[in-house]
Amino acid sequence: MMNKTIAKERAKALVAQMTAQEKMSQLLFNSPAIERLGINAYNWWNEGSHGVARAGTATVFPHAIAMAATFNPELVNEVADVISTEGRIKYNKHVAYGDFDIFKGITFWAPNINIVRDPRWGRGQETFGEDPFLTSVLGKAFIKGIQGDGEFMKATACSKHYAGHSGPEKDRHGFDAQISMHDLWETYLPAFEKTVKEGGVAGVMGAYNRTNGEPCCAHSYLMEKVLRNDWGFDGYFVSDCGALGDIWKFHKCAENAAEAAALALKRGCELNCGDTFSSLVDAYEQDLIDEEDITKACERLYTIRHLLGEFEEVRPYSDISYDKLDCKEHKELNIKTAEECLVLLKNENNFLPLDKNIEKKIAIVGPNSMSVTALEGNYNGYASEYITIADGIRRKFENARITVEKGCNYCLENLNDWGGFANMISDGVGTAQEADITILALGLDQSIEGEDTGFDNDYTACGDKKTLYLPKTQQKLAEAVCDVCENVIVVLLCGSSVDLGEKVTKHAKAIIHAWYPGSMGGLATAELIAGEISPCGKLPVTIYKGDYNIPDFTDYNMKGRTYRYIDGEALFPFGFGLSYTTFAYSNAKVISADENTIKLSVDVTNTGDRKGKDKVQVYAEYKDSRTVTPHSQLCAIKPVELEKGETKTVEMEIDRYWIKAVLDDGKRVDPDGNIAIYVGGHQPDSVSDKLLGYACERIEIK
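User: That's the sequence. What structure does it adopt?
Assistant: Structure tokens below.
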């Protein structure tokens, strides 16, 4: 990679030639050209959480929450590498045509490494789930894939939204998240710390809300002390889009735009997504900022542009063929990722897989039967090909008689296009009644759960769910189908925790959580149902019981939240997922240990009758008399693929960072008692033990 020292020197020399007004203009996301210096315009805003978004054709991978279900950092790294490759391809074309518009650059504002503390949050789909360790590991893998390891960065990643941000969406522009130092440092900050210090992320985006009284984009503690001083972050800091306007309009932490711009710049925000930094000129003239503040910010931004090779005589990565865009190899990786993200939650009496040569009648019923948007999730690109659930089933079950019915809308009354009531439910139920097997394709899409949608009804509020159950329209359809069809398979497409309801959960022969599985998601799902692959996905979030007494949405205390602090039993626990084969764990032991790491090994055997992959998970359980501690904490993961009857010894490493107690002041310390380490294909809880039929291996360490 280009030496950062050289990049800084070149940036400093270039910025020194600019006037104060020119420098201020460069701190806006849509930075204008400076023709006299030979500098092109550049738009910093691009999205790439699961594919290059909003700029024409690109590979649409499974969304981030689906990638999290793979529990596979290497796979996530491969996906991110493809995203940056396709981003470069598009960027090269745009530059050649002089197009420097929005979504045309190579500074991706991803990954979203916020923690899903609340299952109602609509943007959970953009994240890697509810666990700080999993989010950190996958976040680092994603960042390294985006940025690459060449002489120049292929693209840049940006960890967002810093810090303490996870809804409610409707309140985000003026909300103040009150977070204890314990929760801040145990839950909300670790992924940012790890992606900065170990992932080398180029950018950090500040959140809309306040945290403990200060705006996240102008926060003295989080930005100056923690991010810059303690962690040594020397990349660029960007505001979320419009967040600097919130500082004075809604947070009331400044009187006007000039004061808000000055406050953010002084605290270390170099780039404004929005227009508040247009008022930097007023702030400069009022002596709220000086030229040194402006210069420092501008130099940081131009260091990034130099690291991307923008000013090289021959632009790096300009030789990547356009034929690589959404190419066969990228589609194959897309399918592989979708296959590995599918989580089999139930498989009564090994109902799945089905014989793909069956000549039976299969009904596919539900609002996500033929939905493309339910493959994508939000922040999506546009693939050259989409395979819906119905498409995939048709491809894999060529001898079956297949009928498809929508059955109902997502959550609204069943109105047809003519404005009258359409009895879609009777169509769906009637089709299921005549079928030998019914596949219920249920769930949500980005119009229901997402980012500040502005849509409000009895199920959703601006993108956040109001309940942990399915929408009533779908619940009604699903229960009616269960009344008339014995053999029901549920495929749930959504980006969050949803309870199907007791009747449907009990009646269904099989339940698959498919998330938003990308443009090839329907094919991967059909492959699983047909037995061409064995499921290996694991839940990156807890699926709570629908009547779980979840704390108030605005309460950022972790008590009662996630697998680490849940009160009672989950419906389906974090880390859980079934396979078509079975695995046994034995001989877990510590190989070596020092003050930083613990190395351990475990023997994993495929005890079933077919090849399969499991995700080895290591959890720590510890108590400390000085503070509250989680039920357990994930601290290592590793995929293992085994042939029938094969045994492998899997070696893993635990970073002691993850097995320290966090005190009330936020400091990490060694627990004052012993630590129990659990190794298996799931977390060490009674529900997982029962569902999978075995308990994890246990090791006591000091």
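Residues 583-701 form a domain with the Immunoglobulin-like fold (CATH 2.60.40.10).
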